[in-house]
Amino acid sequence: MNASETFFAESPAETVRRIFECIDRERMHDVPLCNRALDVETVGFRHWEGLWVGVVITPWAMNLMVLPAGSESFAPLRVGQEHEWAFPSGAYPFMGNNEPGLGEYHYCSLFSPMDDFIDQAVAREVAEASLNELFVAPEPETPPQPQPLDRRAFLRKALGRKDAE
Q: In terms of pTM, does the model score above 0.90?
């Protein structure tokens, strides 16, 4: 696949799952940091502003992923090169990567290693919550409301009288 031709017209979730299952079998099977209570799973891939955004759970990491969906905003990065993606909840740094059969993608590590996850259900719940929070804009802080001026209290305090409080 040529990087300039690689984009997904439909959800890449199945392709991502299949590629990362292959990575698990072929490259990660004997790696001690893997949590063998977990399987490879894709969670919540959705089309957003000309991109595909979702989470991949693996026995070694949980990553937020951005993949091309035909938008010019997705540009291939060298492996290890960083790009900041802005979401409603804020801007986050993503690293570039490329996998045969998948092509160019950007990822942001949510968890690595995966030791703290007791099972797949817990990992999936955290992945879903993380993805949902990504698309929630923070509520603007409301400035403190001015309190009405109590002239007597102000004067007592200004004059140093103890009964000011």
A: no
